[in-house]
Amino acid sequence: MKTDLRIIKTKESLRNALLKLLEEKPLEQISISELCREAKINRGTFYLHYDNVDALFEEYFRDITHDLDVSYMEPYRFANELNLARLNPKTIRIFNHIDKYKAFYRIIFSRNVPMQYYHMLFETMKALFLRNSSIEEVESNKIHQQLYAGYYANAIIGMMMQWYMEDFQLSVEEMNTQLVRIIGLSKN
To answer: Is 46 exposed, middle or buried (0-12, 13-18, 19+ CB in 10 A)?
Structure first.
């Protein structure tokens, strides 16, 4: 069943208003009234969709992390097993995802958002690694699976944060190439 276009536009307006307000202040200081004013909707409309501002942020975060999941999985789409030594930078989509949601990531990596959202991003990335890593290889090398996933999740988040800190100056293609080169170094 298709979602009503009015609902889509309302939620998009609320998300854009939330991002604008997050540039100015922390999430916990944003009121429903100012959010509604910025989005040009009334409070009743807001309450049709959300209980509070956190609920709006969390839904938006889940939608973005779903897209992150899809982007992360792109290199696996046509391969049963991914050969990291032969990874083609053109198949990587994670930095395309970051570029697409750049405004959101500017907020996530800023100091205006509670750490819980960084932890949510970390848990999402860790779950991606756990789902797609070779468990046999990890276990045969006597590596703790959760530590392994945490290490790689933070490595990717670290690259994302550094890209943000440099105001996304490198192109998506260069970020993909850098990731492949870094993976190549860590495999040697």
So the answer is: buried
H helix intervals, the chain: 5-22, 32-39, 43-49, 53-73, 94-100, 102-108, 115-132, 135-140, 145-165, 172-187
Q: Please, which pLDDT band fits residue 188 given cuts at 50, 70 and 90?
A: very low
Q: How many CB atoms lie within 10 A of CB 24?
A: 10
Contact between residue 30 and residue 21 where contact means Cβ atoms under 8 Å apart: yes
Q: Which three-class secondary structure state does DSSP give residue 78?
A: coil
Each residue of 31-83: pLDDT tens digit?
999 999 999 999 999 999 999 999 999 999 889 989 998 888 877 666 555 55
Query: Is 118 within 8 Å of 108 (Cβ atoms)?
Result: yes
pTM over 0.70: yes
First to last CA, the chain: 50
